[in-house]
Amino acid sequence: MSVTKQKKSELVAAFKTSERDNGGSAASQVAILTERIRNLTEHMKNNHKDEHSKRGLLLMVNRRKKLLAYIKKNDVSEYEDLIKKLGLRK
Asked: At 36, which CATH number?
């Protein structure tokens, strides 16, 4: 269910913004959050009464929304590329 270390490393490698980026950049964080959100969404389809997980899902979605707003404010072209790669809506 959760994102494994290997999957997280792959996401960081795919979305890193510099050579020294180890997952701390906003783009890497958004990619990891997106993967976690997708996993939790699948869980919620089968367990719709799980209120604790629903709250966690909403917190992750809001955190991702804030990070995307930050990226968009600083570099619109990076924002456009990121949402295209991740398959997100604007």
From this structure: 1.10.287.10
End-to-end CA separation in angstroms for the chain: 26
Flag whether 16 is in a domain: no
Q: Give pLDDT tens digits for 26-39.
A: 999 999 999 999 99
Instruction: Give the burial string for 72-86 (b: 16+ CB within 10 Å, else e).
Output: eeeeeeebeebbeeb
* Predicted TM-score of the model (pTM): 0.92
As a 3-state breakdown, the chain gives helix, strand, coil percent values, each rounded to 5, of 75, 0, 25
Is 18 inside a domain boundary?
A: no
The count of structural domains within the chain is 1
42 found inside a domain: yes
List, for residues 63-75, the tens digit of each pLDDT value: 999 999 999 999 9
